[in-house]
Amino acid sequence: MPFLHRTSHMLLAVAVIAGALSGAVLAQHSQHAPKAIVVDRYVTPDGTISDKRIITLSNGKIAALLPHAEIADKTGVAYYSGAVACPGLIDVRSSMGAYGNTVESAFSVDPSVSAIDSFDPDHRDFRRAVESGITAALIAPSPTNLVAGACAVVKTGGASTGRAGSVLRDDGPLVFGFGPRTWRYDRAPTSRIGAMAMLRSVLGEAKSGSQHARLQSLASGKLDAMLYCSDAMDVGTALRSVGKLAAHTSIIHTSDVYDLTEELAGTKATMIVGPYSFSMSQRTLSMAGVLASAGIDVALAGQMPTRGGHSLRQTAALAVRYGMDSAKARQAITINAAKAAGVSDRVGAIRPGMDADLVIFSGDPLRMDSRVLAVYIDGIRVYSADQHLTMSAGGQR
Amino acid sequence: MTFSTHHQRKTLYRCGFVQLATLAVVAIAMVSQPVRAGGGTIVVKGVTIHVGNGEVIDNGVVVIRDGRIAQVGANLAIPPGAKVIELSGGSLTPGLIDANAALEPTNRMMVDRRNARQVVADLFHGDHKDHKHEAVGCCGSKCSRQLQHASGEKCKQCGFPDTLPMAVGVRRSAMTVEHSSEVIPQTHVIDSVNLRSPDFDRLVGGGVTTVFVAPDSAAVISSQGAIVRTAGPLNARIVRETDAVMAAMGTDPSWRGFGNRQPCRQFVNFYNRRPTTRMGVAWVFRKAMYDTERFEKGAVVYGADAPTEPAMKELRHVLSGEIPLRIQARMQHDILAALRLADEFGLKFTLIEATEAHRCLDELKKAKTPVVYGPVYIDAPGMRRYSSEVDHARLHTLKELLRAGIPTALTANELRDEDGLARQAMYARRFGVSLADVTRCVTETPAKLLGIADEVGTVTSGKRADLVLWNGEPFDGSSKPIVVIAGGEIVVDRRKG
Amino acid sequence: MHLLAIKTRRFTSSLASGLLRRRCVSLIACSFVALNVAMAHGQLLERATVITNARIITGSGKVIEKGSIVIKGGRIEAVGAAAKAPFLSKKIAGAGKTVTPGLIDVWSALGRTGTAGDGDATSRAQDGFDRYARDDFREALRNGITTVYIGADGGAGVNGTGAVFQLAPGPGRSAGKVQKKDAALCVNFGSDQSPLSRLKTFAAIRKQFQSAVDYRTSLEDYEEDLKEYLEKLEERVKKEEGDKKDSKDAAKDEAPSDDEKPAPKPADEDDSDDDSDEEEKDDGDDDHHSLDYFFAGADNKTLPAGNGKGDAKNGKNGKDGDKKKDEDELKKPKKPAFSAVSEVVLKAIDHELPVRIEAHRSADILNALALADEFNLDIVIEGATEAYLVAVALADAEVSVILGQVGRSAVFEDTEFRRHSARNAERLTDAGVKWMISSGGRDPRASRFVGFNSQMAMPSAGTKSGLQWSWLTRLTGDASRFLSLSQQVGRVARGMEADLVIWSGDPGDPASIVERVFVGGKLAYIAPQLAGGGS
Predict the structure, then answer these.
(1) Where are the alpha helices (DSSP H) in C285-408?
(2) In this structure, are strands B238-240 and B245-248 parallel, antiparallel, or unpaired?
(3) Alpha-carbon gap, residue C212 to C340, rounded angstroms
(4) Number of B:C CB contacts under 8 A?
(5) Partner-chain residue, chosen from C138, C524, C534, that has the shortest CB–CB distance to B13
(6) Domain A2-86+350-391, what fold?
């Protein structure tokens, strides 16, 4: 990828030039980790876009949100005029950085598998994710098994450039696969009825305490579940089987659950919809909006790297064009995604106490002509579209 | 969207309003109808009632209230405010019950039979004649590759393997039968029943209001079936989630299973074998029951084809008689084998299909084995034909079974619409079965066999109002279901054209 | 006509009695009244539609913050703050709304039925356009797309001519009006091919252009020969007439004409010396030629009898030789076989048809430039996935490109898109290459999101002042100019066809919906929300 190289060079160059200009170690530090970021508007936890704010940071966390006013000490303040600060985007359906095959097909019930074990923090996917404004990803083992293993939730960047950052969770939601992709000809189950019989027996064992620890904690309501479904029938069965047990249930299904809207609304399950592509039918594209207006928590997924980094925001834009409320769409790619990944106490919203994972967009993140100007993870600037940055050395914009 | 000018559009709107208004009226009528039916009363009058148990009430009246049959009789007083359905020359039967319906495979089978050979050839080459099968791979990306036949991924262009004919395309059954073992009573057919399937509309259109969903016969001891209503609200359709376990004799589990079990066949040895013959099928059945008995007593069960633990947990209940057993057998020697095996383990069972039952009437009578007979084919398609198991079918078998006093229900299995259960009854009429008997074969007897006779099966007050109104004598070649009432609601109404 | 008739009548009436004359005057008056009434009627039928007080983005980069648009007779009659609503016009309140020209997808697959397969240059996109792809049209209109260019799809090679369609409501449930047929010659450099087959593909395409050039040369030669032949024929006829005047042995001369058939060979040899190209052709086609000769001879028979005397320069030959020579000279030249394919390709060579070359990989793009250079073609590169790698060459050649989908993963794509870069457009801009944005000409459903695609192509543009609407301009004014339709569509300006989209808000915001779409002045789409409440 030539352009990646170039970007990294650019980043390096920016860093070097900035360092040379400021001349002080402190200033350079502040440039990468400012103590405050000034933006025109920011995306609030309820998904709306509010007025001018100053976001102050300390120790990689968001310290406070202040209304716009003159800052007395202007050193180490990053100004982004006309920009919108958004919580770092989260892709909840990703195989980012997966090294090698994530399909462990020997056993269809394999709760001991952890996605974190196949994750390569130096994978180029992470750099691409950061450039697209995605600061955290839920990495799932391939859902081609009935019980496919535990997800990991990682930050896509951190202190070292081009490398994935901290691991938010390595015992993320347990993945369950439903539908044809879990049926194989060379091992049980080979069919829907076989899969369901197996699931019944596995869950039965889990309840009675004779299964893997992960399944047992799921059965006792202490672990989240991530249910990959192929069709509406799967969604129904998934909801009624695993969905009844897990602490929090996320269901991944994109095309058609109109019939189940009522049933879903009665549960606390999160529906993970997406990725949306330009080729999808109106009916599919409308689904996120229909679910959201029925009061169901919807998270949108971009499926990086199978789809490009644009995919998450494109999915949101298409969902909005097809009826999803804008605020809900913004939530769907930030806080709702964090909830589905079980990390909403740390990321997904711009609120004091949360991790300072921020994306500075040139406009509304839902607009496809908004550009990522800068990305902060844990308060450290990990990406910058350099020419747009007006860094304050002495408080000038 | 309106592809029109303003002016046209305005008129269109006007038309639209009129149409909308009409639609609204119709919609209100349609919506209010079930409401009235549920809350109010429907009366069917002036029809010949075939009660289902052999009785006939001329000029009968049925009063339906709250989804149930309130009153049945001749010349009853009609309650005021009731919605009256009157059909001169019509007749009324209970909603038909198919005690062995196979869901959804058939439509495609009928269409694809023509191309069966081509499709089977494709199976082994992986490609369709004009395109490579293309599916969404496990990575989620678009990749062209040979489909793994049982992986269940559908080709985006042709729907393969969904389009496979069930008859020869054994892999199609990968969707409904579990191939990891020959003995799978722990699986439930209900898991693969799509209640939204249009197949149910076809069934109810043919007057069938309750079905036993038959498990696939490609395993020696197959899944547990389910009893499902064909109409009504989705959440109230399942009568019984699991019912009988189905076993099969003959070529279905051996020959049909043949292609499904390739990986296992790679390691064929004395202990790891699959039934490839009738003897093998009987062996697997026998071993399953034998192992279960031993397992009960705490013995260690061994052997590559020993049933799995979850399977034995279910078989235990089959042995104790808690879960009913059904055995599908077509040819005489398969029926006799089934009787022998049942005798060996003290099992009671229902014989399914029983194509050559006329050749072992005495044995069946002696064992007091009820039969779900059928379907009768003029020209048997698919597996039945390829296995030659129906070569000796007789059209008067049902008559002989009834004459021998064997409780027999009639099934249409996977046949639908014009070929459905009513047609099967018509054949029976044509070959000597009385109307009373044949009505019983598709209503009361299956209800009794399924253990739902206190709910459905006859036109008796107190029972669920599942009724079929025919425009002539039921099962006559010239009559058809005109109105179908399920749970007191009119679900099919063909009175206007 | 009417007036003329009246005038004549008047004239005649003036010739007739005065009484009649009077009647005639009343007749004139009556007819004028009738005419006026008819015109008034026409006006009533043709009620104007006015969109009032809307923000208008004109498509050429200008924004009118509060203006009205008058639509009449399918065209925009007036635009601007001062535009007045005519009497009895139908008004659409535009306050708070934004009106833009209908978006144009300059490389679309909307309504294209299947793949055309192996077409040749004579295939035409309009023949494969499904006018009843109603759902797709509706979706396109719902997202503001009103005009699409559809290429002639096919594998590698010269695939035919593309066409531009306007999504105007058509008869019945159909839609789609051919706005411009033969809009471009479509060439595909192939996708997902091995390097070897790429070479073959290119060679095959080049050959088609070369044979078109050869075809033209042979046609020109023929024209020349024909002219010469006709001249000589005329000469001979004149001479003969002169001879006839002498009329001494006319009958004598006529007799031997039967013997003139044989011996074509020497003639051939003589001719072939002039043109080696022809020689080749003749050699390949000997049978045909002799047959031709036969017919030519037969033709000669019907001509006025051959002249007795040869030309002056042949004078030294004997009489027999003379005869032969005359015969040869009078052989009608053979017209080259009509080549429909070459006829189309020639149009491209004559700059009547722009050539669109789908090429993704850098090597293919360079090949395309070479082809354009060799045959002096006006080319546009479609796809141009790797254009950023050869941006300088494109800029030097002043060749513009049409980009497809901006959002691609580049990870699991096929060979063509492996080096896809979301910053292609940006880099082309930096290099000074003119580019257009489209839906990528493959996916019929992608056309509707060409707006998003355009926004994605240059996301930075939005932040620069004055470039806020550049994504839109690219899909409207720029696109129409690109398709040479700038006088028909793509702008909100007086006299343009009324292809207008009324957005509920900022067209760049995905939350804005398209409320109404007018195509050719006709309401082609109305949002269900509005349709439900009546308008």
Answers:
(1) 286-302, 319-329, 340-349, 362-375, 391-397
(2) unpaired
(3) 10
(4) 38
(5) C534
(6) Urease, subunit C; domain 1 (2.30.40)
C463/A308 Cβ within 8 A: no
d(CA B21, CA C208): 62
Query: Is C470 part of any domain?
Result: no
Do C456 and A370 lie within an 8 Å CB cutoff?
A: no
What gap in Å lies between CA A199 and CA A208, rounded to an integer? 14
Query: What CA–CA distance (Å, rounded) separates B387 from A164?
Result: 61
CB-CB: which of C409, C456, C463 is closest to A82? Answer: C463
With an 8 Å Cβ cutoff, are B175 and A197 in contact? no
Quote the CA–CA distance of B175 and B154 in Å, as a whole number.
Answer: 11
Low-confidence ranges of chain C (pLDDT < 50): 1, 3-16, 19, 250, 255-318, 321, 533-535
Residues 187-206 of chain A whose Cβ lies under 8 A from any Cβ of chain B: 187-197, 200-201
Q: Give the number of A-C residue pairs with CB atoms closer than 8 Å.
A: 98
Please answer whether residues B281 and B262 qualify as being in contact, where contact means their C-beta atoms are separated by less than 8 angstroms: no
| pLDDT score, position B246 | 94
Fold of A89-341: TIM Barrel (3.20.20)
Q: Cα(C181)–Cα(C183) distance, rounded to whole angstroms? A: 5
Range of weakest confidence among B174-178, B367-371, C134-138: B174-178
Q: What is the CA radius of gyration of chain C?
A: 33
> Minimal Cα–Cα distance from B134 to chain C, Å?
14
- Does A105 reach chain B within 8 Å, measured CB to CB? no
Asked, for residue C311, whether it belongs to a domain, the answer is: yes
Cβ–Cβ below 8 Å for C143 and A367: no
Highest mean pLDDT among A203-207, A389-393, B27-31: A203-207
Q: Is residue C360 part of a domain?
A: no
- pLDDT tens digits, one per residue of C247-304: 655 455 554 444 444 444 444 444 444 444 444 444 444 444 444 444 444 444 444 4
Which residues of A fall within a CB distance of 8 Å from C448? Answer: 278
Q: Number of structural domains, chain C?
A: 2
Using the CB atoms, write b or e for A114-137: b if 16+ within 10 Å.
Answer: bbbebbebebebbbbbbbbbbbbb
- ipTM score here? 0.87
Task: Inspect the interface and report whether the beta carbons of B2 and C45 lie closer than 8 Å.
Answer: no
- Tens digit of pLDDT for each residue in A241-270? 999 999 999 999 988 788 888 889 989 899
Residue C267, domain extent? 215-329
In a domain, C315, yes or no: yes
Domains of chain A, by residue range, sit at: 2-86+350-391, 89-341
- For residue A189, cis peptide bond before it (omega within 30 degrees of 0): yes
Give how far C389 is from chain A: nearest CA, Å. 10
